[in-house]
Amino acid sequence: MTITQRNAVEVTDLRCRYGDFEAVRGISFTVRAGEVFALLGTNGAGKTTTVEVLEGFRPAHGGVAKVLGLDSYRQRRALRPRIGVMLQEAGFFGDLSVAETVRLWEGLEADTGRRPLGGALERVGLKNKARTKVRQLSGGQKRRLDLAMAIVTRPEVIFLDEPTTGMDPEARRDTWAIIEELRETGTTVLLTTHYLEEAERLADRLAIMHEGRIHQYGTVEDVVATCGDRISFRLAMSPQELRSRVGEGPPVLAGSAPTVTYMEEGIGVLYTLPGPSAPDTVQRAHYTLLSWADKHDLILHRLELRKGTLEDAFLRVVGEAR
Ligand SMILES: Nc1ncnc2c1ncn2[C@@H]1O[C@H](COP(=O)(O)OP(=O)(O)OP(=O)(O)O)[C@@H](O)[C@H]1O
């Protein structure tokens, strides 16, 4: 099997412009066949632009974007029947019913020779709305209809742009279950999302984008491991009292200076250890901290050690880029 066959999506040094503005600035990543891949990023990072290039809706201005081994723009006619697309704002005809919309879509896709997926509406929980006019659907219900359209023709690769935005928690969970089912049947899924727990739950691998570039890329574990452990505690005293009792602030731990926040109820202290944090580093940091507290007779309230999270990794990307 060649690399191309194992990768459903291959993006190499992709660039995309709107006029003079370069929205995507040389990104590279692959999506393996059968995996769920999440593109995360800040507002305006370039996620939708990237997905639109892969869907064949816009040309790249540099680099290569291949889906199922085909150039996503130049070979879009050959590619179109093999991919499913859930747009951020699909342009439905408001006067058609839900059932008519899906039938229309099936008709448009009929030349694919694939049997449309029966029960797509049932799968997205819209069967009882089949006769309802599209314009009478709620925002979340429209997103479910978007999803039905993306899966109705059993595509090999599905692009989902913010699939659960506007959905209530139950609909979101149902959508996650559908995406998991798609993966089980061997479908490749590339999704964009602002919900980190969605990526954490669904994605085999992910990329974090900011201002047109990929800053983190790998499995959730790989990305989270780049963030060190966090140590935090509170001191129930004023800054003046701390100064008079200790003379200086909390110590540097494992090369990491504390971030000190002054609040009404006291002083909050947070350390971000260098990542990935080795167990002996964490242990030494604790020892240093507890020795400091003991020496100055301080009580560390709500002392907590926690692992880095995807949110920490995300915020670090944004922070480092500033
Ligand atoms: N049609 C357009 N004309 C000009 N600039 C555009 C156009 N579409 C997007 N942009 C700009 O390109 C950048 C990337 O936009 P894009 O929609 O790809 O980001 P995104 O990561 O999907 O953002 P969001 O999470 O907010 O949906 C943004 O700065 C945006 O303002």
Automatic annotation (TrEMBL):
Q: Does the keyword ATP-binding apply?
A: yes
**Domain named ABC transporter: which ranges?**
9-236
Gene Ontology CC annotation, any one: plasma membrane
Tell me one GO molecular function of this protein.
Answer: ATP hydrolysis activity
UniProt KW Membrane keyword = yes
Q: Which CDD domains match?
A: ABC_DR_subfamily_A
Task: Give the UniProt subcellular location, in the record's own words.
Answer: Cell membrane
Pfam families (alphabetical): ABC_tran (PF00005)
Q: Which UniProt keywords apply?
A: Antibiotic resistance, ATP-binding, Cell membrane, Membrane, Nucleotide-binding, Translocase, Transport
The record gives the membrane topology as:
Peripheral membrane protein
Origin: domain of life: Bacteria
Q: What SMART domains does UniProt report for this protein, alphabetically?
A: AAA (SM00382)
GO terms in the biological process aspect are: response to antibiotic
Q: Any idea what this protein is called? A: ABC-2 type transport system ATP-binding protein
> What organism is this sequence from?
Thermostaphylospora chromogena
